[in-house]
Structures are given as C-alpha cells and as structure tokens.
Amino acid sequence: MELRRVVAVYGVLWREGRFLLVREAAAGEFPGVWRLPGGGVAHAEHPEHAVVRTVARQTGLAVTVTRLRAVTADVTIQGDDEVALHTDRLAFELSVRDGTLRDAPDGPTDQARWVTPAEASRLSLTPFSAELLGLPVTPLPAGARRPAEPLPPADPDRRLRFGAYGLVTDPAGRVLLTQIADGYPGAGRWHLPGGGTDHGEQPTTGLLRELVEEGGQLGRVVELLGVDNLHNPAALGPEGRPLDWHGVRVIYRVLVDVPTDAVVTESSGGSTAKAGWFTPAEAADLPLTGIAASAIGQLTR
Fold it and tell me: What is the pLDDT of residue 269?
C-alpha cells in the first residue's frame, strides 16, 4: 500500500451566534454533507494564504486570519485499498473583512450558510467539523463518501514535510534547543526541538516523541502557538540531490516540569547533533534557525 500525505485548512467564522458552514457538492468527497469552509494547501503555499483563498472561493467572503485554533490528523484509504492518505488538518479562526456571502459557482461545495449550533446539530456534518465546533460527533452513514478518484502520481522531485515543533521551557525559564547535524539543511544552527510527524501520527504525539529523542526530556503541551511555512525549491539533504521541499511546521508551547541534562537519544545518523538548555539571553547569541529566533522572540515580548 502506498503512503501519501496532504495538508488541508479550514476556517471558523462566527457572526451573531451563528457559524459558517458549506455543503459538499456532488463532486465533493461527501456529497450533501456540511463542513467548515476550506480545502487543500497547494505546494509551497502558506497554510494561512490557503485558508483565505479557499474560503473566498467557497463563500465570496474576504477574510483575515485571527489565530490557529486546532491541528489534527487522520488517515483514509483511497481506491481499492491502494493508497493510505494521511491528512493534516489545520483550523483557523477568521474574521470577515469584506464581501457578501454567496454559494460557490463551481468546485467541491455548492452552498454556504450561517447556522446556529441548534440548526447545525440537525445537519449531517463531517466528524472533524462537529468535533471542532463542540457539537455531537455522529458517524456518517455508509455510502456517504463518493468513490475517490485516483490520486495523481507523486512528483519525484517534490517533497511535503509536515512537522511539529516546540518552544520548550523549564520552570527556570530556560529554553531547550537542538543543533542541526552536518549533512542537513541549516547544519550547525540551533533549532526548536521537533521534526516531521510519522504517517498516521498526531502532531502533539510526534512532538513529544521527538522531544525524548532529541533532548531526552518528558514534556507536556500547553498551547498551540501558530504555523510556520518553509519552501526551499532546491534543498540538498541526505537524498544526495536537490529537491523541491515544502515544509509546514506547527509550533506548540511545551513545559518540562522536571528538566534533566539535555541528551540526544535518537539513533546515530539522525538530524540532531546535540541539545542544550539556554537562558533567552544565551540563546540570542547562538546561530539560530528562523523559526527558533521567531519563537524565542515571543518569550521577551
């Protein structure tokens, strides 16, 4: 079975006690089923740009991203058990900037409506949308899903990497950082603990696993901070040839209540050379990756 991954984004919009839902069209994955507006992230596209684009297409509304609200993942089987498709789903809270609500002229959805929670509870909702909105989650009936069309062949020169990273601190306010090993993009720079999630793995689970592997620490996730987008059209890594990489990286605040000496525990040959605890002032003098510098900057604001 082939393992594939995609990233999808959704918008949560409220107005006068109602939230916005769209209905899947006949060409959609679940015809007649309602869900939050949104769709797939294109290669190299920032997830925030993707949610603004897809919501505008499906509703006619120009929106602004307020914050990243939730991130989750699920796996579905496509075709005749040929592809296991892992979808990382990001939900953003949005505010309406301009526009008039309208139905989509074409595409995967055909209606857009403001509905109350009571009205929504009587609709057929995708489980992801119901859970995010705090409504009862009801399994969709058998046959609700339209047979999926074959996925296009994977581009051998493109890579999508979904990762979860942590702004990891201890009770003394120190920050845990990891140094990128030789042979990897950014070698020698100090980075946030974390990395790519495995197929079928939830982002918080992957982050806490990486925290043990890269720093030898047990932590707890306390807050979702945001999402970072990285596009390198010619990254040269362990594959030995340039590849067009698109990285989507969600960032969490993580606390280590009982810190220990930072030790890399993953097997040799990994992307992490060493790890260490630093005060924010000490970290500021290190060669940091962009995502690490941005996250640490939030501590001093």
Answer: 56
